[in-house]
Design brief:
UvrD-like_helicase_C, nucleotide-binding, alpha/beta, ATP binding, about 20% strand, two-stranded parallel sheet
Length: about 220
């Protein structure tokens, strides 16, 4: 039997199992910690480290666009930002896109909004039996274990992401991104993104719904 997990991706921090706990349950088991991260660029991994710190993490040196945190004036401007980001992804060299909301209900609502604008996305909920490549919209909980070239995390305001459990959801959503990460919000950003306002912070932050979106991405070689 093999048990594989990531404590930093715990949805409920009060009920997760750590390596010491597993060792207590299986005292004769061989335990190995995998500390090197290969999925995301250094910029995305560093961003996620500010949300939930893992001091044992070893970064694979692969660079790309800094994560983008974008404020919108209202809900309509927010949805327009997401539409622009989806179109930007379509014009890029990347294949997979994940729009990762905090909950399934939020993902379903945004899916309807984007579908009305002609955006074709696969909606994943707890009843989904297949995962299709391409553009997907789902919740952070369902996205655990998945990865995408580009990730958009909507509604990262301080009301939506406020508790310790929310912090875990935000961390999971951000770490699904391999090459590009975009976060959007209306109103004050989550307290877990306060570091983006600090002097010398790497993440790029746009403060209006009409801010220019960076030039389209190109795939960055690994290695």
């Amino acid at each position: 039997m093999t048990i594989l997990g990531d404590a930093n991706q715990s949805v409920n921090p009060l009920s997760s199992s750590s390596l010491p706990v597993i060792r207590d349950i299986f005292p004769d088991a061989d335990c190995l910690e995998l500390c090197r991260s290969y999925r995301s660029t250094s910029e995305i991994t560093d961003f996620a480290q500010h949300i939930s710190r893992n001091d044992k993490l070893i970064l694979a040196e692969r660079h790309g666009l800094p994560p983008q945190v974008r404020a919108a004036a209202d809900r309509r401007a927010h949805d327009k930002q997401i539409l622009a980001l989806v179109e930007r992804h379509r014009q890029s060299d990347y294949r997979s896109l994940g729009i990762i909301c905090k909950t399934v209900a939020q993902a379903e609502q945004l899916h309807r909004t984007l579908a009305a604008e002609g955006i074709d996305l696969a909606f994943l909920d707890y009843e989904s039996t297949e995962f299709s490549a391409g553009a997907v919209i789902t919740s952070a909980h369902i996205a655990k274990g998945l990865e995408f070239d580009t990730v958009i995390v909507p509604h990262v305001d301080d009301t939506n992401y406020a508790t310790e459990m929310d912090k875990g959801m935000l961390y999971i959503a951000c770490t699904r991104a391999m090459h590009e990460l975009h976060l959007t919000h209306v109103g004050p950003p989550s307290r877990f993104l306060a570091f983006t306002k600090e002097p010398g912070s790497n993440p790029a932050a746009a403060t209006t719904g009409t801010a220019e979106i960076p030039a389209r991405g190109t795939r960055t070689p690994v290695g």
